[in-house]
Amino acid sequence: MYTPEIYKNENQEEIKKFLQENSFGILINQTNGKLCATHIPLELETNEEGNEILYGHISKENPQWNGFIDNDEILAVFSGSHSYISSSWYDHENVPTWNYIAVHVYGKIKIIEGEAVIESLKKLVDKYEQYSENPVRIEDLSKKTMLQARGIVAFEIEITEIQATKKMSQNRDEKNLKNIISELEKTEDFQSIAVANEMRKCPR
């Protein structure tokens, strides 16, 4: 991912938090000579060896998983808040742009089987059911329902590289920065307001 130096995010704790909070990503690889992409939750965790991994699953009906065997190289793309930035908000002439947060995770994928599949499903469901009034638990589902697990391919991705971009008008002076934030908040658009909040937190 091309990222000018001023917009590179190398704060590992911040990146980790971002991945945990924006875990619905795009899994990209090559299958049968063609690029494939699937939109799925990809959860960050630390394995028994102390290495950070992503885990997830896709349907067996999805041909993308056939490429996991031929070529284990994988790319996972995660997006955060983003918004159009009008150059009319500056005190000088310039071109419009876009503020955004994105993380690209490169790694090697391997298929997991057996009890590890059920464990990965438990972790996934527990994370997203924790605020439900009547949370679903994998342990409580019937054998008949759990037969559906046969229809998925579960995997782990050993992370080899992370590239993170946080473009939040770091190239603007304090006066223009404050004006951009003010204009974003006027839009009442949730994405724009989220960008304004991120801009307030961004170190200068």
TrEMBL record:
It comes from the Bacteria. InterPro entries: Split_barrel_FMN-bd, TR_PAI2-type. This is FMN-binding negative transcriptional regulator. It comes from Flavobacterium psychrolimnae.
